[in-house]
Specification:
Number of domains: 1
Oligomer: single chain
InterPro entries: Cell_Proc_Reg/RNA_Proc, FHA_dom, SMAD_FHA_dom_sf
Number of helices: 1
Structural class: mainly beta
Distance between the termini: 27 Å
Pfam families: FHA
Organism: endosymbiont of Galathealinum brachiosum
Protein name: FHA domain-containing protein
Strand order of the largest sheet: 2-1-11-10-7-8
Number of strands: 13
């Protein structure tokens, strides 16, 4: 599945698993990720999960009309935007890294090509 990790001074401070209901960020206790930061709205943003035509899960960051906005890789999102593995999500002054285990598996997959030598295969970095 997927998760979001919060780094503080380069160290993982928190890890939040994203279940099938998604994940909600904000300043109040109704959120799964409670952020004590005045730059964060009471209900700031949420991650929604959708399935595409091939039943692949897609994770969407949606801003909930927050005062200061939500950012992916330092780009302010309008209303919602697709998250990709290793995207940096900023809520207020807090950074979170999006981790998608399914995309990690694809990153590790290499394309193998057949050599002109029988029985020999190779891959390029």
């Amino acid at each position: 599945m997927a998760s979001i990790i919060q780094l503080v001074d380069g160290v993982v401070a928190n890890r939040f698993e994203i279940d099938n209901k998604g994940l909600k960020f904000g300043r109040t206790s109704v959120n799964q990720v409670v952020i004590d930061d005045l730059a964060v709205s009471s209900e700031h943003a949420q991650i929604n999960i959708l399935k595409d035509e091939q039943d692949v899960l897609k994770f969407i960051l949606q801003d909930l009309g927050s005062t200061n906005g939500s950012y992916i890789n330092e780009q302010k999102i309008d209303q919602q935007q697709l998250l990709r593995h290793k995207d940096i999500v900023r809520i207020g002054w807090n950074n979170f890294t999006f981790i998608n285990e399914d995309e990690v598996d694809h990153e590790k997959t290499r394309e193998v090509k057949k050599s002109w030598i029988p029985g020999v295969y190779y891959s390029k970095e």
